[in-house]
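Retro notes, structure queue

What went well: the backlog is down to a handful. What didn't: a couple of records were mislabeled last round, so from now on we paste the full input next to the output in the thread. Example, using Aspartyl/glutamyl-tRNA(Asn/Gln) amidotransferase subunit B from Halotalea alkalilenta:
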Amino acid sequence: MQWETVIGLEVHVQLATRSKIFSGASTAFGAEPNTQACAVDLGLPGVLPVLNENAVAMALRFGLAIDAEIPEVSVFERKNYFYPDLPKGYQTSQMAQPIVGRGTVEILLEDGSRKAIRIHHAHLEEDAGKSLHEDFIGMSGIDLNRAGTPLLEIVSEPDMRSAKEASAYLRAIHTLVTYLGISDGNMAEGSMRCDVNVSVRPKGQAAFGTRAEVKNVNSFRFVERAIAFEVERQIDLLEEGGKVVQETRLFDPEADETRSMRTKEEANDYRYFPCPDLLPLMLDSAYVDHQRSLLPELPGTKRERFIEQLGLSTYDADILASDRDTAEYFEQVMAACDDPKLAANWVQGDLSARLNRAGLSIGESPVSAEQLGGLLKRIKDETINGKAAKQVFSDLWERRFENADQVIEIKGLKQVTDSGALAQVIDQVIEANPVQVTQYREATEEKRGKMLGFFVGQVMKASRGTANPQQVNALLKQKLDALC
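Corresponding output:
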């Protein structure tokens, strides 16, 4: 039987506020356990929550960025369940009236086409604490530092049909929230994680199959692996005559499998009801318009501008626009050298390679955008050739000089374009290699083209890489052919 995969994601994004959603406690990462949980986060008697306005603004900006419906009124509710890392016995969340309604996120598929993924809604909620098992023999420790951290939960429709599409969607969400500045998107620190809803159905069937929810997957790669395993598990189960049970499962990356955690709860299991401590949230048009005015140029708009105005390829534009820091760095380099394609090649090529080897982000680059732009200006005006440019870049990377012009001047890397000076070097190379000259003279025209590279290399070596390669090729061929 032919099977179709159906996937929906619930992405939890930690909002980049300095304090928690209902208290003034810090959200900074890495503090000692239980040092950033105040009385409000712990739900102690007599305390009342106060809504963090910055969390509201960030959620609203996300909704505007995906062109979502923005309701005038949203309501906080209590989601009741009992777990050791939930000290209050309930989570303050939203269900019936979330802050962001229906919208759309576009993803890029492997074949270069695009697909719109519908967003059902996005809602604000507080995070729970964290259970720690590794450092306690036969026991679990509880760290409540995360309790009360503001989250935006983004719930998609079941519009994805493969693990690759799900990964592309997650990357699109990551790109968007980091562009907006509403989250750092650091999945290793838990700033972004997702629950994956997976089901299968016979191809052509309209009704959805029974889904399983895989909880708290925290990397793009793990999302693909978890889905791949879960799809295979469900198909095997159905083809053997069994039934898929609606349940919550956990992905184990070491075993590369999902395992059952508990039977999937329904909404009524949580006994949602409006939070009596928080008034309905009212958003007037003036406030919404103000938040809209704060939106940056979004990734899709930037990508299209790179293609239409700068003449970049779709591939280059997709890569450069996918990260806000990279896009801004590229645009600064381009402004300095006035050559979009040259800037794109170097940012994606030499710079990206060095950053990857050093394990650095583009924001940590030892070579500033202004320095790289200055180097590319010297390539463009033919002050230096490509080989010398790589040496200049290396010196800038090691912070030995302040700018490209210093390196070129002090190290004597200025390209030799004087035909007379080049002719002298070429004559010396021809005189020093009589055997190769004889072989060149006796070779066919086709072989001569290949042998020319030897002489070019010798000239470049003699000129310490400063000769203009195009001139060297032309002059060499002219002199060697004259000897034939």
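Agreed that this is the format going forward. Reviewer comment attached to the example: The chain has a mean pLDDT of 91.
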